[in-house]
Amino acid sequence: MKQKQNKAKGSLRLLLPYIAPCKWAFLLAVLMILVQSVCLAIMPSVEGGITTQLASDLMAITKGEAGAQIHYGIVLHIILTLAVVFILKTISGIISIVSVTDATQNSMRSLRNALQKKLHTLPVAYFDAHPYGDVLSRITNDVDTISNALQQTLLNIIAGVLSLVLALVMMFRINVYMALIGSLIIPLALVITAFVVRHSQKQFRLQQDAVGELNGRVTELYTGYNEILLYNKQKDAVENFKEVNARLQHHAFRAQFLSSTMSPLISLVTYLVIGTVAALGCSYALAGALTIGSLQAFIRYIWQLNDPLSQVSQMSGQIQSAFAALGRVTDFLNQQDEIPEQNPPTELGTVRGEVSFQHVNFGYGEGEIIHDLSFDVKPGQMVAIVGPTGAGKTTLINLLLRFYDVNGGQILIDGKDIRSLRRDDLRRAFGMVLQDTWLFSGTISENLRYGRLNARKDEVVAAAKSANVHHFIRTLPDGYDMQVNEEGSNISQGEKQLLTIARALLRDPEILILDEATSSVDTRLEKRLQDAMHNIMKGRTSFVIAHRLSTIRSADLILVLKDGDIVEQGTHDSLMEQGGFYSQLYNAQFTRSAG
């Protein structure tokens, strides 16, 4: 229990830096809530004054006292006073809502900016271990939950505390014994609240986790929509979704049910106290120790005790959801960043393109998949990396770009350990084309300039021509100004691959990486693409990962990987002469192609 409280306090402390810049708006809101609460505390006494005055006048008339009458002037004065108090209460309420809304939204903007900044500092390993939908849920749903709690519950909690204090003060002014009985509502309500919260908090935490899981599952199903249709897995996809949805429904029901029992239990206590106080108050009134207006005001003050307690109980679900969401956001912000840069970093300078792996060991978890791997690449060489699935081909590229850091050994570029370089400087030397294409919502030209924003129009066109995609772009309705939609579905997969190649060429990197870059291009375009790639790779160090072994016959060096080890290396002709593992892979592929 203590550990949970410490975690909650830590989460709140993490939120303070985002709220602090808006402290004056929050303070204005609190000041206006104070004015509103004072007005609320005055109103029952003023209303009781009307009742007391009318009751006194009617009693005098009934007794036949000389000059007895209804003093309408006094009653009107009290009503006008009540109207002024009510108007002041309304105006202060409006100002407090505007202030806290502005402060909350500015705070949440800062929090979202911090989350976005955190995304850029997290290691790739974090995204490998967490579904994209869950990460997205922390940035969107969880932040919205915190925002709603701040905006909707903060004012009510502050107003509730002030109302409780002022109502108690006014009750003790009227009658001490009745006030002691009436104040029993508070400890009883706290006991009920503590009991319900203790049993429901776990369910709210499970509910938020289930929301994140559901978002992750929806993202997964949506991105694999075509494959689901292709394999007729619609029923399985629906059942899969229903399973996660049912889990969310189960935890949400238990969380909301447990929290919703708080309000009726507190109301039950309030009615029992009101009944007791009313009986005692009537006896005081009959004895002349209490006016009717004061009894009326006292009953109103009891409701002013009940209202904030009931409101807090009704908001307990939202409050607990906010704490669960805040915990998830805190966990995200507290994730360990990428290994810090060496300070001061080594200057990379002009890149020649010499690459050396020296006794490199690496594993994603406890086990290693790269074992004592060493090889050297001379500037301007084209290096092909081949091997079966899981051999470690893509892992080598991840290590070269410092998406992951080696567990042992070192990787050198121009004789400099890449761990001593700034990641930005290192990655600026590379151009990369992945098997999975990525285009963002924007024009064709904007997508091509992604790696080099200041590129001229003629340079963009030249890169497109080199990638054999210029003619295709000219056939589009708006040419280079055509808008790519959010999913990139208005461009075919092969054409998207050509565009990403043109984007890499426009950057004019010193080292080029092609990870299955031709896998989505048909045979006719592949031949044209290979010619262009050979021209662009002249004088530039290039790494090519390919399953189509026929496309790498001209490579200066072929590294054959198997189970994380280089089992063979050499040119295509030398490896074929050896008749080893590479020869088997090549002949098997050629046989399948011929068949």
What do you see in this structure?
One of its GO terms (molecular function) is ABC-type oligopeptide transporter activity. InterPro entries: AAA+_ATPase, ABC1_TM_dom, ABC1_TM_sf, ABC_transporter-like_ATP-bd, ABC_transporter-like_CS, P-loop_NTPase, Type_1_exporter. It is found in: Cell membrane. It is a single chain. The protein is α/β, with parallel strands linked by helices and 595 residues long. Among the domains are: 12-333, ABC transporter type 1, transmembrane domain (ABC transporter transmembrane region fold); 437-508, 3-Layer(aba) Sandwich (Rossmann fold), CATH 3.40.50. The protein is built from 21 helices and 12 strands. The protein has a 6-stranded mixed β-sheet with strand order 6-9-10-3-11-12, sandwiched between helices. Strands 2-1-4-5 form a 4-stranded antiparallel β-sheet, with helices on one face. Strands 7-8 form a two-stranded antiparallel ribbon. The longest helix is centred in the N-terminal third of the chain and has 48 residues, at 72-119. The two termini are 67 Å apart. The model has no long low-confidence stretch (mean pLDDT 81).
Pick out its properties:
Rossmann fold; 595 residues; six-stranded mixed beta sheet; alpha/beta; ABC transporter transmembrane region fold; 12 strands
CATH topology of the domain at 12-333: ABC transporter transmembrane region fold
Rg on CA atoms, Å: 36 Å
What is the overall shape? elongated
CATH C-level of the domain at 12-333:
Mainly Alpha
Beginning-to-end CA distance, first to last residue: 67 Å
Helicity, in percent?
55-70%
Structural class: alpha/beta
Major sheet summary line: 6 strands, mixed
Which residues sit in consecutive blocks of at least 5 with pLDDT less than 50? none
CATH architecture descriptor of the domain at 12-333: Up-down Bundle
User: Quick check: average pLDDT?
Assistant: 81
Give the amount of beta strand, in percent. 5-15%
Q: Could you state the oligomeric state of the chains shown?
A: single chain
Keywords: ATP-binding, Cell membrane, Membrane, Nucleotide-binding, Transmembrane, Transmembrane helix, Transport
Transmembrane segments: 21-46, 66-88, 154-172, 178-197, 257-278
Subcellular location: Cell membrane
Domain ABC transmembrane type-1: 27-321
